[in-house]
Design goal:
31% of the residues lie in helices and 21% in strands. The chain has 13 helices and 17 strands. The chain has 379 residues and is an alpha/beta fold. The strands form four sheets. It has a seven-stranded mixed β-sheet. Strands 10-2-1-11-17 form a five-stranded parallel β-sheet, with helices on one face. The relative contact order is 0.22. Among the domains are: 2-47 and 67-76 and 192-243 and 310-363, NAD(P)-binding Rossmann-like Domain (Rossmann fold); 84-170, no CATH class. Strand 1, helix 1 and strand 2 (28-31) form a beta-alpha-beta unit. The longest helix has 18 residues, at 346-363. The model is unreliable at 368-379 (pLDDT under 50). GO terms for molecular function: flavin adenine dinucleotide binding; UDP-galactopyranose mutase activity. This is Putative UDP-galactopyranose mutase. Its EC number is 5.4.99.9.
């Protein structure tokens, strides 16, 4: 009999497994369908000895010092500020759109103040912003929307931005200065030894048992447990009884080239051309030195593992029905991107997991077993 069964060994499940094991002294069985821990953040060394992210680039950034402090128990950090270029009209231009983007695109020499006037002259008036398209055209106008956003979004989500929630493009800012960082967060660093090593340290506790290549639906009646934390797709938990929630997936093409560097930054987006959305070159992220370089090409698809909830009103309405069902499941906690049908960043998932643990602490008395001490900062 395990005190807890946790389904999914990504950030949500692993953080909760560590907290329950170390702070409550309770037994945890952590299971995952895949052959590894770490979820989509899993990284590994390929045949060339280059550390790659199997499921596309994962860039850690946050404004929450509490989340940094928590994860720093299990990893040292490598400073990295993410920069992205977009291949538009045959040029590599900074994205999010900033002063340099516009000046280089149009051959201008605008100042920051003049750029604001430039945007103001091109914005479209939108009475009420509902969609991803509304967000962009009301900020920078139709032409820049077509060049930088529409094609990329259609490839990524499989539908036009006019059919997607405003949250999709609201995540990407527009700047009038020359700041070319993709994120503006106060903390932007990568786990120094990689994400997988961080997860290994997090789960290195005698109260945590791990079963990989294990499907919850196949073991839920066979393994005794007192309480359940579920981080998989919420519609699958309920055997799709209300219908399937749409998710977007990705197909990855990993290649290694006999050159030291392929592109000037870690990620280049392709909003106008190519079937793929972006190319990632990992050595930029890790600072690793190697005479060869490894890349990943990303192809969005509807087929495969669920990655992104599709933000449309009808999908949110269906999720709300599943959420109502989950409220009638005592002893089950739904956590993470798939279980709550939200497009969370990694730090947001960690924050949600830590908040869930705080609620568990308040509502469920801990067992009599003394908690183990937290892991020390690795060297």
């Amino acid at each position: 009999m395990f005190d807890w069964l946790i389904v999914g060994a990504g950030f949500a499940g692993s953080v909760l497994a560590e907290r329950i094991a170390s702070q409550r002294g309770e037994s945890v069985l952590l299971i995952d369908r895949r052959s590894h821990i770490g979820g989509n953040a899993y990284d590994c060394y390929n045949e060339a000895g280059i550390l790659i992210h199997r499921y596309g680039p994962h860039i850690f950034h946050t404004n929450a010092q509490s989340i940094v402090d928590y994860l720093s128990q299990f990893t040292a950090w490598h400073p990295y500020e993410h920069r992205v270029l977009a291949f538009v009209d045959g040029k590599l231009l900074p994205i999010p759109i900033n002063l340099d983007t516009i000046n280089r695109l149009y051959g201008l020499e605008l100042s920051s103040a003049e750029l604001e006037e430039f945007f103001a002259s091109r914005r479209e008036t939108v009475e009420k912003i509902h969609t991803a398209e509304d967000v962009v055209v009301s900020t920078v106008g139709r032409e820049l929307y077509e060049k930088f956003f529409r094609g990329y979004t259609r490839k990524q989500w499989g539908v036009d931005p006019s059919q997607l929630s405003k949250s999709v493009t609201a995540r990407v800012p527009t700047r009038t200065n020359r700041d070319d960082r993709y994120f503006g967060d106060s903390f932007q660093q990568m786990p120094a030894s990689g994400y997988t090593r961080m997860f290994e340290r997090m789960l290195d506790h005698p109260n945590v048992k791990i079963m990989l290549q294990t499907d919850y639906r196949e073991v839920r009646e066979r393994i005794p447990f007192r309480r359940l934390i579920y981080t998989g797709p919420i519609d699958e938990f309920f055997d799709w009884k209300l219908g399937r929630l749409p998710y977007r997936s990705l197909r990855f093409e990993h290649v290694t080239l006999d050159c030291e560097q392929f592109q000037p930054v870690a990620v280049v987006n392709y909003p106008q051309t190519e079937a793929y959305t972006r190319i990632t070159e990992y050595k930029h992220l890790t600072g690793q030195r190697n005479v060869r370089t490894s890349l990943t090409y990303e192809y969005p698809t509807d087929i495969g593992d669920p990655y992104y909830p599709v933000p449309r009103p009808e999908n949110e309405a269906l999720y709300k029905q599943y959420e109502a069902l989950s409220a009638n499941c005592p002893g089950v906690w739904f956590v993470g991107r798939l279980a709550t049908y939200r497009y969370y960043n990694m730090d947001q998932v960690v924050g949600q997991a830590l908040a869930t643990f705080a609620r568990i602490q308040k509502t469920i008395p801990a067992s009599d077993r003394a908690p183990q001490s937290a892991l020390a900062m690795p060297v």
